[in-house]
Amino acid sequence: MLLAREADSVWLQPGENAHVRMARYEYLLNWQPSSSREAWGPPQARPLRRLSDAYFGVADVTGAKVVTSSGVLEVKLLPTIAPAAVRNFVDLAEAGFFDGQIFHQVVPGLIAETGDPHGTGLGGPGYTIRDEYSLTPFGRGSLGMARASKDKAGSRWFISQRREPQFDGRYTNFGQVTDGWAVLDHIRLGDTIESIVIQRRSQ
Q1: Strands 61-68 and 153-160
Q2: How buried is 123 (Cβ within 10 angstroms: 0-12 exposed, 13-18 middle, 19+ buried)?
Q3: Concatenated DSSP letters for 85-115?
Q4: Annotated domain spans of the chain
Q5: Measuring CA to CA, how many Å separate 163 from each of 88, 110, 119, 133, 141?
Q6: Which residue has the higher pLDDT, 154 or 16?
């Protein structure tokens, strides 16, 4: 039997399909002896060893330029906090999945949500990923993964327009707006994502 560290290196090769790595990542997290776990329920971080963002090929990802019909948002992504969510976002963005999608749910002063290819708030990419709870607070401009239920996130994501303590530890927080605050405040229902450009550190 492989030791946990050896299994990590064998199972999570950086060049592998991201969604295969996510499935294996979930298995490894769930592989912990039950005696090593505490209650998983929100609003606390999951007490499971965290695998490096490098396993998902996102260690060099720094942020994204989100071009909307209302203007441009500059976003910092958080691969060390939510590597699976960041990898998922990066893969979908670079495949053009979000281009042309609308903000299907907007509550002015609260949240703006997008990422549903059907524009109904019920669609997704055809798969789901596991939640990555953390103690990173949802503040103004935080990016969160929307989901139908626990561990059922896919492609829908939202931006908080104010501090939202009720989201802390209950949704995956995977990014933060760093510029474009006036744009964030003016996003309206039906506005569109024109493009998302992923930013990485220079080698």
Answers
A1: unpaired
A2: middle
A3: HHHHHHHHHHTTTTTT-B--EEETTTEEEE-
A4: 53-200
A5: 25, 9, 26, 17, 8
A6: 154
Q: Look up the CATH architecture of domain 53-200.
A: Beta Barrel (2.40)
Q: Residue 1 — very low, low, confident or very high, per pLDDT cuts 50/70/90?
A: very low
Whether the CB-CB separation of 87 and 56 falls below 8 Å is answered with yes
Query: Could you give the dihedral angle defined by the CA atoms of residues 95, 99, 105 and 106, in that order, rounded to the nearest 10 degrees?
Result: 120
d(CA 183, CA 77): 18
Whether the CB-CB separation of 69 and 191 falls below 8 Å is answered with: yes
- For the entire predicted model, the pTM comes to 0.81
DSSP per residue over 121-161, as a string? SS--SS--B-----S----TTEEEEEESSTT-EEEEEEEES
d(CA 159, CA 170): 15
**176 vs 27, 47, 77, 181, 185, CA distance in Å?**
28, 24, 6, 11, 15
pLDDT in tens, 147-169: 988 889 999 999 999 999 999 98
Instruction: Please tell me the distance from the alpha carbon of residue 99 to that of residue 51, in angstroms, as a whole number.
Output: 30
Residue linked to tokens 């997704």: 124
Q: Which amino acid is at 94?
A: E
Q: Give the model's pLDDT for residue 136.
A: 92
Tokens of 185: 């405040």
Q: What is the pLDDT of residues 89-103, one digit of tens each?
A: 999 999 999 999 999
- Return the CA Rg of the chain: 17
